[in-house]
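Students often ask why we bother encoding 3D structure as a string. The short answer is that it lets us treat folding as translation between two languages. Here is a chain of 461 residues written in the first language.
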Amino acid sequence: MSEDLINTGFVLDPSDNVATLPWGGRAGVAIRLRGTTSSGGSALTLASEIAPGHKVSLTDISKGAAVLKYGLPIGFARLDIPAGALVHVNNVSSRFSAPENENDNAPDTMAVIQLDVLVQAISAVLEAAGAAPEPAEDTARHLTSAEQCGVSTHGIRRLPALVARLRAGGINGSASPLLQRHGALISVDGLAGLGHHVARIASDSIIETARETGVAVALVRNSSHFGYAGFYAKRMAQAGMVGIAVSNGQVLVGPPGARRAIFSNNPLALAAPVGSDGFFEFDMATSVTSRAHIAMAAETGAAIAPGIALDADGRPTVDAAAALTGILLPLGGEKGFGLIAALEVLAGVLPGGAYADQVVSKEAEPGHAEGTSHFLMAISPAVCGSEETFRERMSDLEQRVVNLPMAAGTAPARLPGSRRVALAKVAARTGLPLSKAALEVLTKLTGEAGVQLDLVMELSA
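And here it is in the second language, the structure alphabet:
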């Protein structure tokens, strides 16, 4: 075998046409295949660079064909995928989606854009809609980070709604949050500003305070949707802290059987530094799936999986459009509903802002302030030793997890966050690939704002 044959891909079922690649690899490198494979071979050459934890195609997969893992379809090819290629959201629809319309011959176009160029473009779009430079840049960096880390549900697709709310006055684009410190606790009034800006300032304030006091908490009220919670927890981790971020938001979750939502799918994130440059980043919504995934399915008319949503009458549904008029179900049933309620105490009631169904819908009332509230906490490892010791202990924890003995054909265990770190590094080095939908949004909004969109390359399939 070639000396480059250093990676292993795990095939979980004989009918699979994709395999998980836990350790990543570069184009032209051969990988070993463990388990059984429909390709009939024991090695495969990578056609493109693939980050750890992602999937590689074992055979040529035609546009519209099912993408199989565990012997089951996890999605459908949005375009022809050659053997050895990265299998990701840019070329595969989700498992909630049906195959593309055979009569739709429009090419699925992608572009590659450098991260700093995307930040500048989004900032310019937001400023043209009425945001001040600093809030616009904070929001642009957050949306770009979401795309970079593979959290595309909170990336570019959020930009049109932000522009609309800025124009309608539901978000005060020039607001700078007011902070009042009470010992290790900082009370923050977001003044209905851009949530990404409000939460960034609040996070930075408790990082500085925690360096002095060992632990600090920010209670934020009168903000707006702040994006993905892991961004702020990891920001604290990048400063050597253990970071925690919780938020409430648009009301969309209720207990099983409910005909009306009462809570948001309150996200919970916890991040910490690992070793010299790694990060633990746990980030989850507390509903079975996010509303963004439901909305994406509704846009294409695709069905959703059973057990994740109810219609307006409180009945289970697989109709995405009906789910948008109904409610999402909590992760873990009644226990999950209890967790959401507990997080609402921290992120809604405690900060003194809107809580539960007092939060205004950013879609139904774009001209009104949301009143979203956040809970942010930074803990300095120095309070129980030193940051260096903590990083070493986190590294040891990681090794204990990744070295767990696993069943044959099962990918190695990993700590939360490793996939996002790997994706971010690849995007920083090679640029960010944009899906057709993301490119259309950017092209439209930059055109309206009179901004030149500088793409590195454009590809049509």
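Translate back mentally: The first strand starts at residue 7 and ends at 11. Keep this in mind for the problem set.
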